[in-house]
Amino acid sequence: MSHNSSYARAGVDTAAGDLAVELMKASVKATHGTEVFGGVGGFAGLFDVSFIKNFDRPLLATSTDGVGTKVAIAQALDKHDTIGQDLVGMVVDDIVVTGARPLFMTDYIACGKVVPERIAAIVKGIADACLATGTALVGGETAEHPGLLGPDDYDVAGAAVGVVEASDALGSEKVVHGDVVIAMASSGLHSNGYSLVRHILAEHKMGYGDYSADFGGVIGEILLEPTRLYTGPLVDVLADENLRGVVHALSHVTGGGIAANLARVLPLNSWVEVDRSTWSPQQVFRVLTGISGDSLESTEGTWNLGVGMFAVVNAGAASAITLRLTELGIPSWVVGMVSTTARDLSGFEQGAKGVNGGAVRLVGNYVN
Questions:
Q1: Beta bridge pairs of residue 162
Q2: Per-domain residue ranges for the chain?
Q3: Which of 58, 272, 298, 325 has its CA 20 to 30 A from that of 52?
Q4: Is 325 helix (H, G, I), strand (E, B) or coil?
Q5: Domain PurM-like N-terminal spans what residues (predicted)?
Q6: What b/e string do you get for 3-20 counting C-beta neighbours within 10 Å, with b at 16 or more?
Q7: Which residues, 6+ apart, have CB-to-CB distance to 116 below 8 Å?
Q8: What is the CATH T-level fold of the domain 3-166, as seen in this structure?
């Protein structure tokens, strides 16, 4: 009896894994430029970074993340072609926040049983999003865990690396009094707060496959709307010589919600009041809060409510940047201004995730 057949008796199908690789190869190779060495299937990905010899002080940026419990909805609907974009958005859009251009990414899929077509659909979503953000997908791993995960269960994670010239790195140290805060529209829930989403639906006995006129379609399909990708447009803006140096900080609105994530990129003793009246949260947020009996405001620490990214920019460049981002497919608008004027900061969110940063609170009412 061969080693492979012994492994198959334990529930691991190496032949299925090989087929999955064959099915995904074209998608993965489409992300490879001349910097990628070795192709698909090596023990490690190789990426030529000789170009950074031209940098005065190159800084590598790295980020890792997953998709969270949103995968439970993909599994329930047996729809796996968008989860990969969510993964890339969660990882690569954290890289661009530093001002870095992403270079390459790797992924990891753990599953109870390798279904080649399912794995290939997930990886195609990852590869397509990598291609859209200028990121090479240089490697990955699919691990079959029978007995630990059910046959239709899986989880995905990834990591990416980018590079930025030290003098071009973004952060709170560049933010000054009078800077303008620009909001960039989300595509919906993105990949945060799905434990709350799933709790609300379960509590009200609503299924992912149910049609809902309020949601505007099949509930699960609405909830699987993929995360908007900001990296491509932002790299374009940051590379524009006419806009050089005017973007001071970026904030990716993920776990922790709106105020906390913006506060992380503001300097200590600064504050911003974000004006809710400048936008209208998407229908999915309104329906979910309507079902649960919560207010939109009570979910600001969980969901993005329509804002997926912030930019803190020089006031004189705010109009040019909002116009440019909107032209590049990211609707953008001004929501507030940074101040260092002394004031009572009661009711403000101050810093987050170990960062002793600025203070943020949301004011006004959302547009209906």
A1: 61, 102
A2: 3-166, 172-363
A3: 325
A4: helix
A5: 60-164
A6: eeeeeeeeebbeebbebb
A7: 16, 17, 19, 20, 22, 23
A8: 60s Ribosomal Protein L30; Chain: A; (3.30.1330)
Joined together, the tokens standing for residue 221 give 């399909």
Q: Give strand pairing partners of 60.
A: 163
- Read off the pLDDT of residues 161-211 as tens digits, 9 standing for 90 and up: 999 999 999 999 999 999 999 999 999 999 999 999 999 999 999 999 999
Any idea which fold 172-363 has?
Phosphoribosyl-aminoimidazole Synthetase; Chain A, domain 2 (3.90.650)
Cβ contact 88:229 at 8 Å: yes
* pLDDT over 50 (residue 2): no
**Are 284 and 301 contacting, i.e. CB atoms less than 8 angstroms apart?**
no
Closest by Cα among 276, 295, 259 to 335: 276
What separation, in Å, do the N-terminal and C-terminal C-alpha atoms of the chain show? 67
Q: Phi-psi region for residue 233, left (φ > 0), alpha (ψ -120 to 50) or beta?
A: alpha
Is the torsion defined by CA of 300, 302, 308, 312 positive or negative?
positive
Q: What's the rounded Cα separation, in Å, for the pair 123 and 140?
A: 9
- Which residue did the predictor score with more confidence, 139 or 316? 316
Mean pLDDT of the chain: 93
List, in sequence order, every residue forming a beta bridge with 363; answer none if it has no partner.
275
Q: What is the spatial distance between Cα 168 and Cα 238, in angstroms, rounded to a whole number?
A: 9
> Given pLDDT bands bounded at 50, 70 and 90, which one contains residue 1?
very low
Q: Give the H/E segment covering residue 59.
A: strand 58-66
> 173: phi > 0 → left, psi -120 to 50 → alpha, else beta; which?
alpha
Q: How far apart, in whole angstroms, are the C-alpha atoms of residue 34 and residue 259?
A: 41
pTM of the shown model: 0.92
